[in-house]
Design goal:
The complex is a heterodimer of chains A (about 325) and B (about 350). Chain A has a single domain, classed as 3-Layer(aba) Sandwich (Rossmann fold). In chain A, α5 packs parallel to α7, α6 crosses α7 and α7 runs parallel beside α8. Helix content of chain A is about 30%, strand content about 20%. By secondary structure, chain A is α/β, with parallel strands linked by helices. Chain A is globular, with a radius of gyration of 21 Å. An 8-stranded mixed sheet of chain A has the order 6-7-8-3-9-10-12-11, with helices on both faces. With about 350 residues, chain B is of the alpha/beta class. Chain B has 13 helices and 12 strands. In chain B, β11 and β12 form a beta hairpin. In chain B, α4 packs across α5 and α7 packs parallel to α8. The longest helix of chain B has 18 residues. The chains are: A alpha/beta (about 325), B alpha/beta (about 350). The complex binds adenosine-5'-triphosphate and magnesium ion. The site of adenosine-5'-triphosphate has 17 residues of chain B, from β1, β2 and α1.
Chain lengths: ~325, ~350
């Protein structure tokens, strides 16, 4: 997935987020009692990026940074509060009729936990065949395609008649991948695709995703908290902090020359599997603020080791400081 | 890492826990599950020993065995666990209660599993001193509690000790659990995946805190994790578990630089690493076995690229790794043969250098 030739792509984005915002209204007894609305949770607060066909895009960030909400909004599982998601140039939240049906075929998702994402009462053939039957595929054509994708993901044909609980976690994730590729999509959102899996199984699934990409011309948007996994699988990485992108760069550049102070801290916090490379972890003070009351100015400034006065006042612009290297920081 | 590891100062006489041939089995309706099967390792004063392995490999059951908290239908079948001269396998439940909390602390993956949501943080930390008055610091209870919360770097400790666990973030709750586990200055802390549920930047803080506490209190830690990165960052020695057995046990540098067991080798090779983008990650085929239905011979043999016929028929014993400090060992026929061959050539070679 890392070094493919890009001749198939003309550089036009397959996916584009334009200043996407998703706010959640907070419900709850307290607000009902007080008869006033609490401020909304700004899960995604103005995110823009482009994904080129064939070039995997990885979104990393800590819990609550908004990664999963972005994935859900792209797939129409959430309605944006503002901004838009363009898939092959068309606003996905305005699609109707045939165009919507085609969008549903062309995009799919794989979630973190194969146990909860696969219906326990459905047989594997129905789980994997579902995206096909939605498209009107029936009978022998359906059976053949199910057998074909099961084979693609390394499962035996007789898996089709069994139920998810009869499989191990890694095999269940293969089933989820089989379903995702069944209707021959173009874009697959992978939300923490290996984090629930055993260490010895992760490499198997990452390799499978790569093989499938090569064979099926897929583009992945991978959402994960594990930067090492995203670094392996993606060409470009975007780092989220509290609903916004802090930095975005080609994977190698992000790892070699991180520019945003948060990216640097995040990189230094990642444990390296090499005891001879023990390093100083950069301190990150304080706690992540509430996304319903993000700090003014740069939202990282209260925890930033190099913040200056301006950072508490002006929101930094999202700018391209080097080709394809974007950052939101006054001090870069 | 802000602090140098203290391996050189660790004398073998300083062993505080010595586990030998521990077996803890579960007697279920479907048969016997050998969750911990012939496990041996040592923990020295001030040492952080990592216990790594995949889900179901027996890490938590090992921890619970040391605490003597094995749930039914499990029980310790045989073996020794010598802690400060006493064999924990045989001590009375009353004695064990005195050891838990005061001499052996425990930190779990989910802080809320060990915190009481309706007691203030101060009451929960203070409660320990009521059980173990001999281990309580001098002065008022509140002063002692505040001191202990400050020790785990909880800002504004005096105010926050009046709050309840739910008003703390996940990282702060884990600090409280570490405060409770270390309040009585125990000799040993057993930490079962203490950072697995935390974000990576919070994990980094908790790891730094454990290292600082080790330096301040001289406490030893049995650190259970499935993350080899974390092991490399903070452990002095490592036991790799697979299907209820320790397949390799050695100091951390040797495990990472010269892994002996094919499972350790394959696991290290399969890790996605920063700074090293691979077109194809070397992966381990198949999946970990069901402990209730183990393959014959070595449990790893069905997945092992190095397996020979013997591995599928006979279970290998532990072989000492030459040159390893303490009880470093590997449980593999092929590795044992290679070590023996290496030792033979080393012996055959004329030794010109002084020892
Ligand atoms: N109460 C129980 N009854 C029956 N079997 C049990 C019980 N508790 C644990 N086991 C079995 O013991 C084995 C080891 O489990 P253990 O919890 O120690 O694994 P672990 O290495 O801690 O895994 P994880 O990484 O998932 O925490 C497993 O096969 C498990 O099924
Ligand atoms: Mg466990």
């Amino acid at each position: 997935m890392t070094t493919r030739d890009t001749n198939a792509t003309d550089g036009a984005p397959i996916l584009e987020l334009v200043n996407l915002k998703k706010y959640f209204q907070q419900e709850g007894l307290a607000s009902a009692f007080l008869r006033r609305k609490r401020p909304p949770v700004r899960a995604v607060d103005g995110v823009s990026f482009r994904v080129t066909a064939g070039q995997n895009f990885g979104l990393v960030g800590e819990s609550g940074s908004g990664k999963t909400t972005i994935g859900k909004t792209i797939l129409r599982l959430e309605q944006p509060t503002d901004g838009s998601v363009l898939f092959e140039g068309a606003d996905v939240h305005r699609l109707r009729g045939g165009a919507l049906k085609e969008f549903r075929r062309a995009t799919h998702v794989v979630f973190q936990d194969p146990n909860s994402s696969l219906s326990p009462r459905m047989r594997v053939r129905d789980i994997v065949g579902e995206p096909l039957s939605v498209q009107g595929v029936r009978g022998a054509a359906l059976r053949e395609r199910v057998a074909e994708v099961l084979q693609l993901v390394g499962l035996s044909p007789d898996a089709a008649r069994r139920y998810p609980h009869e499989f191990s976690g890694g095999q269940r994730q293969r089933i989820a991948v089989a379903r995702a590729v069944a209707a021959d999509p173009k874009l697959i959102v992978l939300d923490e695709p290996v984090s629930a899996l055993d260490v010895s199984i992760r490499a198997q699934i990452l390799n499978l995703l790569r093989d499938l990409q090569d064979r099926l011309n897929l583009t992945y948007l991978m959402i994960a908290h594990d930067l090492a996994v995203v670094y392996q699988a993606c060409d470009t990485i975007g780092v989220m902090y509290l609903g916004k992108l802090a930095e975005q760069a080609p994977s190698e550049a992000l790892y070699r020359e991180p520019l945003h102070p948060y990216t640097r801290i995040l990189l230094s916090a990642i444990p390296r599997p090499d005891p001879t490379q023990r390093h100083e972890r950069l301190p990150l003070t304080g706690e992540i603020p509430s996304p319903s009351a993000p700090p003014p100015g740069c939202r990282f400034h209260p925890r930033c080791p190099i913040a200056v006065e301006r950072c508490a006042v002006d929101e930094p612009e999202w700018r391209e400081v080097e080709p394809d290297h974007w950052v939101a920081c006054h001090l870069v | 890492m802000t602090e140098q590891r203290t391996r050189a100062s660790l004398a073998d006489a300083d062993t505080i826990l010595s586990v030998r041939n521990l077996r803890t089995y579960f007697y279920t309706r479907d048969g016997v599950v050998p969750a911990v099967d012939d496990v041996s390792f040592d923990i020295r004063r001030g040492e952080i020993v990592g216990l790594v392995g995949e889900s179901g490999s027996g890490k938590s059951v090992t921890a619970r065995s040391i605490m003597r908290l094995v749930p039914v239908p499990g029980r310790i079948v045989s073996g020794e666990m010598i802690f400060q001269g006493r064999d924990l396998v045989g001590v009375s439940e009353g004695e064990m209660r005195q050891l838990r909390g005061a001499h052996i602390g425990m930190v779990l993956q989910e802080p809320m599993a060990s915190l009481n949501p309706v007691l203030t943080i101060g009451d929960q930390v203070g409660e320990l001193f009521a059980y173990h008055p001999d281990r309580a610091p001098d002065g008022s209870r509140d002063d002692a509690v505040a001191e202990i919360l400050q020790r785990v770097r909880i800002p504004d400790a005096v105010r926050r000790m009046t709050e309840f666990p739910l008003s703390f973030s996940g990282g702060m709750r884990q600090r409280v659990c570490i405060a409770i586990a270390t309040a009585c200055r125990p000799e040993l802390v057993i930490a079962d995946e203490p950072t697995t549920a935390l974000d990576v930047t919070i994990q980094a803080q908790v790891l730094d805190l454990l290292l600082a506490l080790r330096a301040e209190l001289g406490v030893s830690v049995l650190f259970i994790t499935h993350d080899l990165g974390v092991v490399a960052e903070i452990c002095d020695s490592v036991a790799v578990m697979y299907a209820g057995k320790i397949v390799e046990y050695n100091d951390v540098e040797s495990i990472f630089a010269r892994p002996q067991h094919p499972y350790t080798k394959a696991l290290l090779a399969s890790l996605p690493r920063l700074g090293e983008r691979l077109a194809h990650l070397p992966s381990i085929e198949g999946q970990p076995p069901d402990l209730g239905d183990l393959p014959p011979g070595c449990s790893f043999s069905p997945r092992c690229p190095a397996a020979i016929d013997r591995c599928r028929e006979q279970a290998p014993d532990a072989t000492a790794i030459p040159g390893a400090s303490g009880s470093g060992h590997v449980r593999c026929f092929v590795a044992a043969d290679m070590l023996a061959a290496g030792a033979a050539t080393a012996n055959a070679a004329p030794s010109g250098s002084t020892p």
